[in-house]
């Protein structure tokens, strides 16, 4: 009896018509059918999936082994049943709604044999809007759990040496409706002699179904919380406390636990919110080390801190207010910056300032979103003309570093997608000119009134705010949000110039100055009369 090189495990539940493409991609593998075993377990499907499996088994009896069983509620039980029947040197898992590239299995088996790898991860991409983390696939290389993006790619859609699987009795926990592949994958990666990544060929195409019926999308908050608890407990038993465990748990705090505290959290009933808060708080207490805390952005860190303190109402308010109004202002204090989420310096909550502090992260987008124009006008003193702008900025406290200035040219490509950027440490910074008067705004942030002197030149310059936040200087274009612009203005007698304020295509405030030659008639005369009237106002 032949020993196949690889056994492909397919757990199936109601995945027609995607199942057909999946199975076609298996029988069409370049590795050849004589080197392939497919074990497909129909987990009580109620559509035509079971019949489709039987059809392929009839067409390819030397390749397919098909098992039909009552529905178990998740992919773990059918995957375990398939492992009992696997005979290949390697085992590979595929979702029954996904499919493989033609050379996937041949390339991965060759890699495992050449490198003596126990785990091989072929490049995986998403289709139909399915998100798949891509940072692991930067080249063909060997990786470990703590020196790569591997913790963010913990699905079981990998090639495993079956000898490793059987040696350590690796199986899927059948009482986990979602995430049951993570304990299996994490333990396999901990036990493996070598883990290899193949990035130069797309091996796996992960499909998001049109009806979004993948089980991951259907589980509720408490079910997902229980599964994350199980995964983290299993991982903690395998990996001692330290950097390697932190590297794995960063994924769970950044992804699974963060997703429990997002925009759908305030809509949950009070008891569910309390249970989620307690569960997340317990995991924060157990595994959120100082290193993980300080390496997590302040938005997530503050939410984790509120959960840890049992501050359910403050946490609910923090999420709801950010959805409705955007991020809260930053309090600038002694060179440090704090996000003033609910619970900040509230003795009843009892969280240290560190939970709210901006630590080594770029906040350009949030500063840009919270900086907007309130009004703009012209002010003339003798022969000098000033642009007077009032803008609201998302900072409070020590705003002495703030400067409002005109800047030439567009923002560089490295700018934050929202329009702001963090200046390099050695970048030139505008010096203060004119006057700047800060006032605390009633709805948070600071109202800045700037008098910017205008030069009699031909120029087109954007109005930008420069401010120091947590040791870095940010350049933030001022968005107008549909505010009315002042009428164009003429100034100067010896060399008359025209100044105009406008909104550019990105909704930012731009000031244009240009020499003005007095026309004698026609359209030019009407423009001159308009400018003269605006000067008298």
Radius of gyration from CA coordinates: 31 Å
Helix fraction, binned, reads 25-40%
Described by strand count, sense and barrel closure, the largest sheet is: 9 strands, mixed
Summed up, the helix count is: 15
Describe this structure in words.
- This protein is an alpha+beta fold and 537 residues long.
- The protein has helices at residues 18-27, 49-59, 76-85, 104-115, 162-167, 181-191, 215-218, 221-238, 243-259, 270-287, 290-294, 298-308, 312-325, 364-369, 522-536, and strands at residues 6-12, 36-43, 64-69, 90-95, 99-100, 119-127, 141-143, 159-161, 195-207, 330-333, 336-339, 372-381, 384-393, 395-397, 403-408, 421-422, 435-440, 446-453, 459-469, 472-477, 489-491, 497-503, 509-515.
- Strands 1, 2, 3, 4, 5, 6, 7, 8 and 9 form a 9-stranded mixed beta sheet that branches. Strands 15, 16, 19, 20, 21, 22 and 23 form a 7-stranded antiparallel beta sheet that branches.
- A hairpin with a 5-residue loop joins strand 17 (435-440) and strand 18.
- Helix 6 packs parallel to helix 8 (221-238), helix 8 (221-238) runs antiparallel to helix 9 and helix 10 packs across helix 12.
- The chain is elongated, with a radius of gyration of 31 Å.
- The chain starts with 5 loop residues before the first strand and ends with a helix.
- The relative contact order is 0.07.
- The model has no long low-confidence stretch (mean pLDDT 92).
